[in-house]
Design goal:
heterodimer, A: 263 residues, mainly alpha, MetI-like fold, 12 helices, globular, B: MetI-like fold, 2 domains, two-stranded antiparallel ribbon, 13 helices
């Protein structure tokens, strides 16, 4: 009796997992198999995709690093300090965290035009340099540091910057790496922002390449699209496998006032 | 009394703290320019008549909002958003619960299973959208292959008026299940076992035990998942753009965010786009406020 109860959930789970992974696995298979059948774009198209990949991953890397730094700074202040406006700031961040960029496309376009950065890489990087999520995520991570440690550091005469760089940052190294991965994935897969701020083909991101390919009069064979798709998705999946625990618990904490109960 | 001073407690009252302002300044500047200003602009534009060619704007009161009340596309988008949520929310919640319950009973490999179901959560919506466009492709897609294997006629999922939106909802359920499962499985892990055992002794089994014992213990986790899914249901954009491209066939997959995009970026009717976007913002912010009222306790299974 107890044996059947124990075996069945795992089998069911495995079946569900197969169902969940099937679309990704089948896509990778299709992309790999069709490569031999002249499905990949050639010459100029390949150069274009390589350029788009460089832009996408370069811009995402910069904005991920900067938004982690800025997010950690603001999260530190929101977590350990009491200052005028903190409630307003935190409330605004929470509200803004879930606003879809897609409904802000017109004003984003206008902002980049007035800052004279429209249709440049800067217009891709700067808006992603601080996200409401990065601040809330880092606040949730720093909330878990015992206040006694910070107090001890203060008594020992460490400066504010010293406390932040020598005490706080080393203690949240795990969450920061997790956040960097999340921000990198989000930035490299963003669609609404590049649609709003990029025009010229030479500045296209990978997601815009996909969109253009879909809209072309003669759409390329699905396999070549899937190859670009894999290009976007694979780094994300690899990075994720390395840090999945921190990513999941960190996101839950940031999103839901999730209180971790440790034994 | 003296060593009370040694235990660090932040001063209860907010005060002017220059260091705090210095630390939040970069985040505030970037967010103000690229998020708050655009949001404020949008709020304002709903009350203005914009001339995109001349770049001028004149106050027009609530006429953009009233106009929407008579617009069939607006009501179609509301219906579509609701219809989408009607499939997506219960679907993700149900699938997430089942996966969570199975994960928590699956022995040593719990963390691994949870990670596996979390992979689609991390795929950007644009990527997942294209993936599912291929799945539904009438000629080479996975759905067709599976239909052939099962010996049933193939369906052009994304080009059938009544099937496009439910098909996209299925893709979104696929993406959200891992997140719901992570929330619920963490909460299940701290749920006291005693209630379950008492129910067992009292002979409460099956559906009765699920409804009267197990689900009430997970109240906050379920509520939080529900609210999050309701928020997400109103944010779906890239998935629709990547699958049907124009919210078609004939507006059948145009939801509210997609309507904002059509009004603003395709038809340059900024007043209409802003009016719809503002309504959407209020609806989302309201749900976020509710979301923060329910703390979830949990421990990662592992």
């Amino acid at each position: 009796m107890s044996k059947t109860v124990r075996v069945r959930p795992t089998i069911l789970l495995a079946m569900l997992a197969v169902l969940w992974i099937l679309p990704i696995a089948a896509m990778l298979y299709q992309a790999a198999v069709s490569r031999s059948v002249q499905a990949l774009p050639e010459g100029a198209a390949v150069a274009g995709i390589a350029r788009a990949a460089a832009i996408t991953f370069g811009a995402s890397l910069i904005s991920a690093v900067v938004s982690c730094t800025i997010g950690a700074m603001a999260g530190y202040a929101l977590s350990t300090k009491r200052f005028y406006g903190m409630k307003l700031l935190f409330g605004t961040l929470l509200g803004a965290m879930f606003l879809p960029a897609s409904i802000l496309m017109v004003p984003l376009f206008k902002v980049t035009v007035s800052l004279a950065i429209h249709d440049t890489i800067a217009a891709l990087v700067l808006p992603a340099c601080a996200t409401a999520f990065s601040v809330v995520f880092m606040k949730a991570a720093i909330d878990r540091i015992s206040p006694d440690i910070l107090h001890a550091a203060r008594i020992d005469g460490l400066s504010e910057i010293g406390i932040f760089t020598k005490i706080v940052l080393p203690l949240v190294r795990g969450p920061i790496v997790a956040l960097a991965i999340l921000e990198f994935i989000a930035a490299s897969g963003a669609l609404a922002l590049p649609m709003a701020v990029i025009d010229a083909p030479r500045n296209r991101t990978l997601t815009l390449c996909l969109l253009d390919a879909l809209r072309a009069i003669n759409p390329p064979p699905p396999a070549s699209l899937l190859a670009i798709l894999a290009l976007i998705a694979v780094p994300a999946v690899i990075l994720f496998i390395a840090k999945s625990g921190d990513i999941i618990s960190g996101s839950l904490a940031a999103l839901f006032r999730y209180e971790r109960v440790d034994e | 009394m003296h060593h009370d001073d040694l235990i660090f407690t932040p001063p209860a009252k907010p005060h002017f703290d220059p260091w705090a302002y210095l630390f939040v300044a970069p985040a505030v500047v970037v967010l103000a320019v690229f998020l708050l200003y655009p949001a404020a602009w949008m709020l304002l534009a709903g009350f203005q008549q914009q001339d995109p060619v001349a770049g001028t704007a004149a106050f027009s009161g609530i006429s953009a909002y009233l106009e929407q009340l008579w617009s069939p596309r607006f009501w179609r988008a509301i219906l579509n958003t609701t219809y989408f949520a009607g499939i997506y929310v219960p679907g993700s919640l149900g699938a997430g619960y089942v996966v969570a319950a199975l994960i928590n009973r699956s022995g040593r490999w719990r963390a691994w299973w949870r990670g596996l179901f979390f992979v689609p959560v991390l795929l950007p919506a644009a990527t997942a959208g294209l993936l599912w466009r291929w799945v539904y492709d009438p000629e080479t897609g996975l759905a067709r292959r599976l239909a052939e294997m099962a010996g049933v006629p193939a369906v052009d999922w994304l080009n059938e008026a009544r099937l496009a939106l439910p098909s996209i909802a299925v893709a979104s359920i696929w993406q959200s299940t891992g997140l719901v499962a992570a929330i619920i499985s963490a909460a299940m892990w701290v749920q006291p076992r005693e209630y379950d055992e008492m129910a067992e002794i009292d002979g409460v089994r099956g559906l009765a035990r699920l409804v009267h014992v197990r689900l009430p213990l997970l109240k906050n986790a379920l509520l939080v998942s529900l609210l999050l899914l309701l928020i997400n249901a109103q944010r779906v954009f890239a998935m629709i753009l990547m699958t049907t491209q124009d919210g078609g066939p004939a507006n059948w997959s145009t939801n509210l965010p997609f309507l904002v995009y059509r009004y603003g970026m395709k038809e340059f009717d900024f007043g209409a786009a802003s009016a719809v976007a503002t309504l959407l913002c209020f609806s989302i912010v309201l749900l976020v406020v509710l979301l923060r009222r329910y703390p979830v306790e949990g421990r990662e299974p592992g």
